[in-house]
Structure formats: C-alpha cells, structure tokens
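Researcher: Re-running this chain for the archive, since the previous output was lost when a drive failed. Same request as before.
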Amino acid sequence: MGKRHSAEQIVRKLRQAEARLAAGASIPEAARELGISEATFHRWRNQYGAMSTSEAKRLKELEKENARLKKLGSWLPNRHWI
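Model: Regenerated structure tokens:
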C-alpha cells in the first residue's frame, strides 16, 4: 500500500499542481512531479479541490469522529427505546 497523506498535505499538493497547470504543464506531468498517480490527482481534486486546509482538516476530524461513533453504535445492543 502507498503512503498516506494528511488532508493539509493533499490541499497543499493540489495548490502546487494548480500552479503547475496554470504554467502550462499537463495533468500527468503535474501528478508525476507530486509523486502521485493521475487517478489519485483526479480523486483528490474531486474531494478536496475547493477546500482550504482548515476545511480539509475539519473534514478529516469529522470523518474520524463518525467512524468512532459508528463503532461504538455497533457495540451497543439493538434495542428500541421508547
């Protein structure tokens, strides 16, 4: 499995890629310079493209909290509370 990037790193790399694209580089070239695949670039762009670094960090925190609560919810017995 490849290396994991934090939300802040992803947003920072996307900003670098946008600068390279504005300078005339192609998407494959920009992705290669960032050390990621073209598919990863497109996935990140769709998910984080319009976010600031603080928004991306908050999204990751919420996703982590959601996963924790789901795990906790699966541990609780299934009872209908009236």
